[in-house]
Amino acid sequence: MPFYVYILASQRNGTLYVGMTNDLARRIYEHKEGLAEGFTKRYGVKTLVHVESYDRAEDAIQREKQLKHWNRPWKVALIEQNNPDWEDLYEQF
User: Domains (ranges, CATH) in the chain?
Assistant: First the structure.
């Protein structure tokens, strides 16, 4: 079973959120529909702009923690490396 580390954005260069899950489609749906209480609901962070897949939960957790400690310019550069137009990647999953 794959584990995913993802970044959501409120808009291009907007508020960012880093998360981790083993069911990406379900989790992003929860964010989009406002079913996930907390930060993403409060700030309207709903656009999936970056995804990484891992075979082991430990690796995904480690990467999530790493990304959460990155500064904003590094996160923006990571997003723009593979998704320069900040397109919503949700439909791919």
Answer: 3-92 (3.40.1440.10)
